[in-house]
Design goal:
The protein is α+β, with helices and mostly antiparallel strands and about 300 residues long. About 30% of the residues lie in helices and about 30% in strands. The strands form 4 sheets. Strands 3, 4, 5, 6, 7 and 8 form a 6-stranded mixed sheet that branches. Strands 11-12-13-14 form a 4-stranded antiparallel sheet, with helices on one face. It has a two-stranded antiparallel ribbon with strand order 1-2. Strand 1 and strand 2 form a beta hairpin. Helix 3 runs antiparallel to helix 4. The longest helix has 18 residues.
Amino acid sequence: MAVKRLLAALWVPALLALLSGCAAAGTLLRAAWDEIQSGGIEGVGFQEDGSYVSYEGYLYNEAADAFFAALDVRDAEGLRGQFAPRVQAEDADLEEQIEALFALYPGPTQENGRDGMQVHGAYRDHEGKERAVVDSTFPVVSEGEIFFCFLQLCYQDDFDADNVGLLEVDFFTKEEYCALGLDLGVDWPEDQGLNVCAGSPLEGEVRVIGGYPYLYEAQVPPLDEAEVQAFLQARGGDWTAFRERFGEPCAGEGRAFYDLPQEEGEPRWLSLLLDGDEILSARVVDDLHVAAVRTLWEAE
């Protein structure tokens, strides 16, 4: 996101200080926040489309983008320097994990699904001091391969400036991220710092559908969207009848997915939201995005 020239002298040092654990990080953040409130930073506040971007969402996106910019050019020192000073001091295998990430991730990044407006936050406020930590998990794409990244950022800590910066980055293959939800002995990393997670014991193909990875078995041929819509309009959300007509889904846990023909070279699936033996809705989804491409049918 662009920064107005007249404010760059304030904002850029503030951001760098926040990500490097400067003792004055809280003061600099508040100064930058004053500028943001006055409309000084493009991309923060109310946008032309009416949406609102918070300073917190902006900071998170900037940190995620900086991480992948360093990863794409294989800047090991740049990656290390984005972690909080305490993490750099305590994560004994940080350099080893950086090299493992270089070996796993081909680069460059084709698509980065980070969204600072969808972060989870943890906050502390005591006697005028504040601490703020935000995190989320998002997909990234390189050379057509989809990975998942959990990135946790502390952007303010008046209690301990050495905590400011990246606290944890967990980097998963889609197979490893899929295996987390199954009873296969694959657990979420417990260590802060950088954790590269690969080597999943899953057997079978994994596809990312609607923003999440699933075990997948292809359908041949894909369903016809118009036939599906006509069936649901005529028969309603009878899940048993739907399976009798169209067969078993290609993937799904809590939802049922069916292959649809590609659109302009991009994958599409039918996503059915289920409640027991009832279909509640039928939507078309792509691979990376949770939001539907369009809705075909909804129960009344």
